[in-house]
Design goal:
Blueprint lengths: L1 H18 L15 E2 L5 H4 L29 E16 L6 E16 L4 E21 L6 E23 L2 E22 L7 E27 L2 E10 L3 E14 L5 E16 L2 E11 L3 E11 L15 E10 L11 H4 L1 E15 L4 E15 L6 E11 L8 E16 L8
Antiparallel strand pairs: 1-4, 2-3, 2-17, 3-4, 4-5, 5-6, 6-7, 7-8, 7-9, 8-11, 9-10, 11-12, 12-13, 13-14, 14-15, 15-16, 16-17
C-alpha cells in the first residue's frame, strides 16, 4: 500500500511538470486557442473517443460528469496516462515533413463521498499551441521571410461530481479551472546583411486564469436482464474567460537582432476569450456487461467566439464518434484464461473542425480510426490501457496542409478498495 502511495505522488509531481512542457505540434494550432483537447482518456481514445454512455469498468469517465456516479462505493481510483506519436505534413507545392510529440494526457483521482454522490479531481491539457511557419517571398526583388510562430496552451483542473437521485438516472457537473499562457509571434525578416532594411516583429503573450462549468445526465433503460440501453446528454455554456495580454511591435535592422525602434507596446491589457457553447448527445447499447456499442454526437458553436473582442477564422464544429468494447468474461467478472479478461476496443470518428479558412470556402476536417486493449491484473482491479489512433486532418488543396498522424496512448488505472484491510501484503 505504501509503495502505491509513493507511486501516485511521484506520478502526480511528474505530471504537473510535464503538463507545463509537453505540447503537440501542428500548423493548425495557430487558430483560436490552439488544438483543443476532447478530454477523452486512453480508454475513450481506443473507441473513437466515444464517451457519453460508456459503462463503468473500474475507471473514471468525467467527459459526461453524470457517469462519475458509477464509481464503486468503496473504491479509490487513480488514472494516469500519456500519449505520443508521429505527425507528417504535406502541401501541393512542397514535400512532406514529420515531427514527433509526447505529452501527459491526464492525471485523475476518483472516490466516493456517499452511496449516491461520487467525485473525481483531475489535471489535463485543454489546448496546445506549437507551430512555426515560414513563407518565403522575393517580390520587388527583395528576399524576405514571413514568419509565424507560437507555443504554449491552456491546462485545466477539473472537479467532477456525479449524483444518482434515483435508480438508473444520474446527473453530474464539472467545474474547470483554466490556466496557461499562449505566445504568438509574426515577423517580416529581410534576407539582407547590409542593414539597409528594417525587420518588423509583433509579439503577443496572453495569460488566462478563470473558471467554467458543464453539465451531464445519463439514463439507463433495462430492456431485459441482459440488455441495456443508455441515453446521455452534456451541455457547456459559452464561457468568457478572463485574460491579460502583453503586446509589443518593434523594428530590428536586417543584419542585427537589436531593437532599433518600438512601434507599439501594450502591457497588462485585460480582456475576454470565449469558449464555445457545447451540446452533446449519446446513445449506448450494453449486452450482459460483455459487449458495448456507443455513438456520440457533439456540436460546438465557435462562430461567436471572440479573442479580445475580435473574431478569428472560426465556425461551428461537429464531432461524431462510434466505438465498441468487448470483454469475453464480462467487465469486472472472474476469468479463468487471461484473454477472457482483456477488453478489446475499436472505433472511428469524424470531426468537422472549427477552423474556417478562405471565407468559408475551406473547412478543416479530421477523421480517423482507433484500436486498443484493456489489460487486467490478477487478483486486483488495477488495469493497463493501450490505444492507437490513425487519422488525417486538413487537405492539401488550395495550398493548405494535409496532416497525417499516428498516436499511441498508455494509461495506468489503479483501483483499490477503501476501509478493507488485506490479510496478506
Amino acid at each position: 500500500m505504501h509503495k502505491r502511495i509513493i507511486l501516485i505522488l511521484a506520478l502526480t509531481i511528474s505530471s504537473i511538470i510535464c503538463l507545463a512542457q509537453g505540447r503537440v505540434g501542428s500548423p493548425y494550432t495557430r487558430y483560436g486557442l490552439g488544438d483543443v483537447n476532447q478530454n477523452s482518456l486512453i480508454r475513450n481514445n481506443a473507441m473513437g473517443r466515444t464517451s457519453y454512455t460508456l459503462p463503468y469498468n473500474n475507471g473514471i469517465n468525467f467527459i459526461n460528469p453524470a457517469l462519475v456516479s458509477q464509481i464503486d462505493t468503496m473504491t479509490f481510483i487513480f488514472d494516469f496516462g500519456f500519449n505520443g506519436g508521429i505527425r507528417s505534413y504535406k502541401t501541393e507545392t512542397q514535400g512532406s515533413m514529420s515531427n514527433y510529440d509526447f505529452q501527459i494526457s491526464h492525471l485523475i483521482f476518483g472516490f466516493p463521498i456517499t452511496k449516491w454522490w461520487k467525485s473525481c479531481v483531475g489535471f489535463m491539457p485543454y489546448s496546445n499551441v506549437a507551430y512555426s511557419i515560414v513563407d518565403r517571398d522575393s517580390s520587388l526583388n527583395v528576399a524576405k521571410d514571413y514568419i509565424y510562430s507560437g507555443n504554449g496552451g491552456l491546462n485545466q483542473v477539473a472537479w467532477s461530481n456525479g449524483f444518482t437521485p434515483f435508480k438508473n438516472f444520474s446527473i453530474g457537473i464539472n467545474a474547470f479551472y483554466y490556466f496557461g499562457k499562449i505566445y504568438h509571434s509574426n515577423s517580416i525578416d529581410f534576407d539582407d546583411k547590409t542593414g539597409a532594411f528594417l525587420n518588423v516583429i509583433e509579439q503577443n503573450t496572453v495569460r488566462i486564469n478563470d473558471f467554467s462549468f458543464d453539465l451531464g445526465l445519463n439514463y439507463n433503460i433495462n430492456l431485459n436482464p441482459e440488455n441495456q440501453l443508455s441515453i446521455a446528454g452534456v451541455y457547456a455554456y459559452n464561457s468568457q474567460l478572463n485574460a491579460v495580454r502583453n503586446t509589443m511591435v518593434f523594428n530590428t535592422l536586417s543584419n542585427s537582432s537589436a531593437i532599433t525602434d518600438t512601434i507599439f507596446q501594450s502591457i497588462n491589457e485585460k480582456g475576454k476569450i470565449s469558449l464555445a457553447q457545447k451540446i452533446g448527445v449519446g446513445i449506448g447499447y450494453n449486452h450482459d456487461d460483455k459487449l458495448y456499442v456507443g455513438v456520440d454526437y457533439t456540436i460546438q458553436d465557435w462562430s461567436k467566439a471572440k479573442y479580445f473582442e475580435l473574431s478569428d477564422q472560426l465556425s461551428n464544429s461537429t464531432f461524431i464518434s462510434v466505438g465498441t468494447e468487448y470483454t469475453p468474461a464480462g467487465r469486472g467478472k472472474l476469468y479463468y484464461k487471461y484473454w477472457q479478461g482483456v477488453s478489446y476496443r475499436a472505433g472511428f470518428y469524424s470531426n468537422q473542425n472549427f477552423i474556417n479558412l478562405n471565407n468559408s470556402e475551406t473547412k478543416i476536417s479530421d477523421f480517423g480510426i482507433s484500436f486498443g486493449l484493456g489489460l487486467p491484473t490478477k487478483r486486483s482491479k488495477t488495469s493497463y490501457n493501450l490505444s492507437l489512433q490513425i487519422g488525417q486532418r486538413g487537405s492539401a488543396k488550395n495550398n493548405f496542409i494535409t496532416e497525417n498522424y499516428f498516436i499511441i496512448g498508455f494509461s495506468l488505472n489503479l483501483a483499490d478498495m477503501w476501509f478493507i484491510k488485506s490479510k496478506f501484503d
